[in-house]
Amino acid sequence: MFPLWAEPSTDDGQTYRITLRENLRWGGGYGQMTASDWVYMIRNVFQGEDNWAGYTSAGDWFRQGEPIPVEQIDDLTFAIRLPEVDPSFPLKPILWGQNCLPRGILEKYVAEKDAAGLQRDEEITTLQYTGNLGPYTFDRWQRESQFVATRNEDYYIREVEGLGEEWYNAPYFQSYRIQVIAEESSRLNALRNGEVTTAGIPPKNAQEFRDFDGVDVYVQPQPFIQAIKFNMRANGWRPFREVAVRQAFACAVDKRVLAENLYRGFAEPAFTMQPRFSKWYVEEGMQQYLFGVDDLYGQEPARARMRRGIAGTGYRYDGTTLVGPDGAPVRLSLYASSASETNQTLAELLAQEVESNLGIAVRIETIPGNTFQQKYAVNSPPKGREVSWSAGTFNGGPRDISVSQEPWDMSVVLGFNTYPRTPSSSATFFDERGNINYYGYVPESNIPELYAKASQTIDEQRRRDLFGDVFRNLAREQPFGFLLLPSNIVGTQDELVGPTETFASGWNAQTYYFER
């Protein structure tokens, strides 16, 4: 762990003291960053009534529907008192990379729950409050074009002792510019011509850039999994609720061919919600769930599981075609991202495999990611219909009642984080009442309980065993059709010093420099 603004500590793994550095100063005349700023924001925004501010990770600050107690200890220290032991808490998204706003800004909007005012606040939208807190200072933002920041001459980290000499004059660039170049070929040409310092590279172009003088290519492990999300809500295809049906789709896709051909070898087959490079991944007991490779790929294993899953439902095979209770051939929708050629090609290959191995026709729809979230992931009960529970924007209640604005069957638009450092952070994806469960998954086994037990276990070996049970159950139930764990491929001008081919490369980007 490399503490930035604050350092966590605990004696029991349940109460965490968060101690801020003394030299953190807000801009805009708000003075020193204190524990009061944090406690006020946590209580009134992160845990605000009815999530009035629309904070997307509000669920992280509650346990069993109750807010996690947070108390100020002194000017620079506050305590988070968890209802249970959690040894991985400091590495979870709730604290990792967490930001804050000055209490003086928030107080103008909290009393009236003025979300619109908060969103329009000029001090926030132009980052006037950031003071010495970051390596760069806001300059200008031309929407859909570029974001420009300039070197912060007051960056707090240069005053911190014991970090190593590379931090003493960071950052080493006068400006930092993020450009929006919508066309993939234009982005790659900009990298090739030295017009940008760094850019992502699609798998199909990786070897070309490896052979290109002037550009260094870094292949980095990354935590995001590519999977087919099945809509198990009332406006999806009902057979997806059966484990055997989801297994059938996993068996219908040759994951090794996808990894080698579509991703040019820059991806590994995925079978559960954890990458192999994670210390929590367990091989034992997984062999029987390696769907999509060897004997568990192809028409025979796929259709055998499909027949098992649809038994007694009215669905059946008419020759090689799956037909519904009305006798009509089954036709399903599959949504892909309009922003990624690789994602669209993935959808096309999946459609071919599903039709060939399961006898199901697939209609592909391409869509921007934000549109998919708004119309297909966000769900709620019909107007005037009461529900017994709601987990928020992406899980508005039981799957038979809460549905999205538009119907859908399958999607590869959104990737999910496997959280290799803290696997229990993915529990919300696989809990019926999880706040990200937009697809309406209801676990058949005790997956949420295993997650909770692992999260609360201090002994590392015991925790690893429990996570092994979690990952085996997920591999069996296939809440997603696990497909691939692609690598992150980044190209940089060869004069840039700092990037590495490691997981989470970039945590120290403030120390990168040009070798000239």
Describe the structure.
This is ABC transporter substrate-binding protein. One of its GO terms (biological process) is peptide transport. It comes from Haloarcula nitratireducens. GO terms for molecular function: peptide transmembrane transporter activity. This protein is α+β, with helices and mostly antiparallel strands. 25% of the residues lie in helices and 21% in strands. It contains 13 helices and 25 strands. A hairpin with a 2-residue loop joins strand 14 (316-318) and strand 15. Helix 7 packs antiparallel against helix 9. The mean pLDDT is 95.
Quick tags:
single chain; 516 residues; alpha+beta; seven-stranded mixed sheet; four-stranded antiparallel sheet; 13 helices; Peptide/Ni-bd; SBP_5; peptide transmembrane transporter activity; ABC transporter substrate-binding protein; transport
